[in-house]
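User: Sequence for DUF4139 domain-containing protein below. Tokens please.
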Amino acid sequence: MRRTRWGIGAIGVVMLVSGLATAADIESTAVDRVDLDLTLYSNGLSLVREGRTVELAPGEQVLAVGDVSRELVADSIRADGPFVLREQRFAYDAGTPERLLERYVGRPITLIQHHTETGRTTEVEAQLLALSNGTPIYRIGDSIEIGDDHSPWRPRLPIEKNTFVTPTVLLGLISETRGPQALELSYLTGGLGWEASYNARLHPDRGRLDLDAWASLHNRSGVDFENATIALIAGEPYQAARPMPAMRAETMRAHSAEAEFHVSGSSYRRYDLPEPISLADGERKQVRLFANDGVPVQLEYRLIGEGSRSQRTEVRQNAELWLHLDNSSPNLGRALPAGIARIYEAIETNGEQLLGEVPHSRLGSGPMGKPGRSKLRCSWRAATNRLSGPGRRGSRI
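Assistant: Structure tokens for DUF4139 domain-containing protein:
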């Protein structure tokens, strides 16, 4: 028998694992994967498709498919294979304290209390009477205990055969044969996504720039994805409102492979990454989309508003720098997904300096920026040697 301690939210739950932890006849883990495809969108919803080889027995059975996302959209599950699928469901009882404790309302449980002074532990038998907004209410003998943050008691719950402490897809199926069978599983999930970012470096003559485009991939789904074929979609398909996944700690890594560029339809742009990538839970890494050197650019400075005079001939005004990119073949000629752009300028004496950062720049028309004339805009506070007055808004210098 193995003891596992769970600390979930404000409620500490200790669970005892005894015997089989699921009611499934057959279990499948990530070890059974033979291929894995991820289609990542930038709006928080992504598509996972994986192939597995599973051992089935003849007749009716329940297959438990583990190592799936905890942010899985339950009604998006699709399972195909040489079997008859009768039913399916997504099970994750330990996803929240409320979901876990709901299973034991009205039943006897064990409460434990740890004494820090002596190091000893006290156990009492209790009954879980109810949950009130997530707070458990216990009966201990002839008294009632409220299991809030101030309570010294923590529940210890046995893991039963139909309790799923990790995200699991349950498939009720009928197989005609015994032995290894091919299973294809796909589902939509939150917790996976990507964003584009750009590093633009102006040449000293300010007539050209080098544009470096990156995709930042993130995984907060609760499961590792190893050696996945990844496609990135620029554009936002319609989706129903769902709770946003919880933020998790992230690490940053860099992957320097060039991405192959594809156009699929008029509403979206698809980028197929050339090599399989592993993306661990909680990880964030960058993959290069493309790099173009010497893209023709024109600079335009604008003064916005009348500003405030600090001296008789000096005015403090909001200034903007517009960069007009020649986004046409053979100079660039790419659809540019929306993303943050950082613009640097080469300096002959000191290397380079940051001119500005453009949050979520769209770099052109449409959600992913079409080839043609694209613009980047930086804003800052500047001093000009001229008097302000009526009609001077939007002036150029």
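The longest strand covers residues 283-309.
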